[in-house]
Amino acid sequence: MPIRNFNEKTLTAEVLARLHATSDPRLKQVMTSFVKHLHAFVREVRPTPEEWFRGIEFLTETGKWCDDKRQEYILLSDTIGVSMLVDFINYGDTKNATESTVLGPFFVEGAPELPMGETIAKPGTPGEPCTMRGSLKDTKGKPVANAVIDVWQGAGDGFYDVQKQEGMNLRARFRTGADGKFWFRCVRPVSYPVPNDGPVGKMLVATGRHPMRPGHLHFKFTAPGCATLVTHLFVKGDKYLDSDAVFGVKNSLVVNFRKAKSGEYQANYDFVLLPEKRTRPARKRR
Ligand code: BEZ
Ligand code: FE
Which of 17, 128, 159, 177 could potentially form a cystine with 188 if both were Cys, beta carbons 3.0 to 4.6 Å apart? Predict the structure, then answer.
């Protein structure tokens, strides 16, 4: 059969056939699925050439907004629910352990390690003072010692340190002792918009969506023998809990940040970590 003269019906099969020499089986699977679904999308939408080019321009602009401080593609993945879909596929089955949610774009490696009980807010940081307490256990109820807890959050004005070009603020690492307990001071989390001055912001406006996330505090737990957990705690009563711009809210992660008589906010949460996944040794190729 001559490999030419394709039409709308026969083209997809030929593109798929040309993947036959892909040596990496996972890449072959991914490319096959990608081509199939993209062709099906184009058949369904039936774009004009101008519309197709507009799509290419959107992706080009998204790339131009990316640098070491801004990742517009992650933001796109977050706002169209793909980041949470990947999270559900990989970490959906938590059984009795704490649920995960999106990492987001504001995690920074190398935050300062502080002694337990310290504040993560530099003097003058906007926001209402808050104390966060909790514990870390494994699924058998044993306290997790020597765990590294990364915490990070936006200030009371709704901005993260990296958005204000200031030094590190409102982020730190703590290390648990034998009792697995932790406590530190921070500011009460407030709702804030995801960065919306770029192409993703335009997409949100064009689709009639708001850019807001409910107030939350980010956590990443790394501990010997345990699976790493990336999650948030959300503020109970926040008006954006049911319309988070990145679909990250889970009921089990919504917490009461209550105001104490001292005027300070307080919250408590006991986290449970899954055991580390054992990776099987790769099978020998025949
Ligand atoms: C955040 O939690 O800070 C965040 C998450 C996803 C997209 C944008 C911001
Ligand atoms: Fe955040």
Answer: 128
Residues 76 and 55 placed together within one structural domain of the fold: no
Q: What pLDDT shows up at residue 165?
A: 77
Q: Which residue has the higher pLDDT, 284 or 244?
A: 244
Share of the chain above pLDDT 70, in %: 96
Domain of 223?
Answer: 72-273
268 pairs with which residues across the strands?
133
Q: Is the pLDDT of residue 278 over 80?
A: no
- 3 lies in a domain? no
Nearest to 147 by CA among 113, 195, 197, 190: 113
Please check whether residues 209 and 79 belong to one and the same domain: yes
The answer to whether residues 162 and 26 belong to one domain is no
Are residues 41 and 102 located together in one domain of the fold?
Answer: no
Distance 46 CA to ligand 1 centre (A): 33
The residue type found at 86 is V
* Nearby residues for ligand 2 (ion, Cβ within 5 Å): 104
CA distance 204 to 163: 20
User: What's the pTM?
Assistant: 0.91
Q: Is the pLDDT of residue 63 over 70?
A: yes
Ligand 2 centroid–CA 106 distance in Å is 7
In angstroms, the CA 154 to CA 169 distance is 9
Q: Enumerate residues lining ligand 1, CB below 6 A.
A: 75, 78, 102, 104-106, 194, 213, 246
**From the CA of 228, how far away is ligand 1's center (Å)?**
19
Task: Give per-residue pLDDT as tens, 24-42.
Answer: 999 999 999 999 999 999 9
- Number of separate domains in the chain: 2
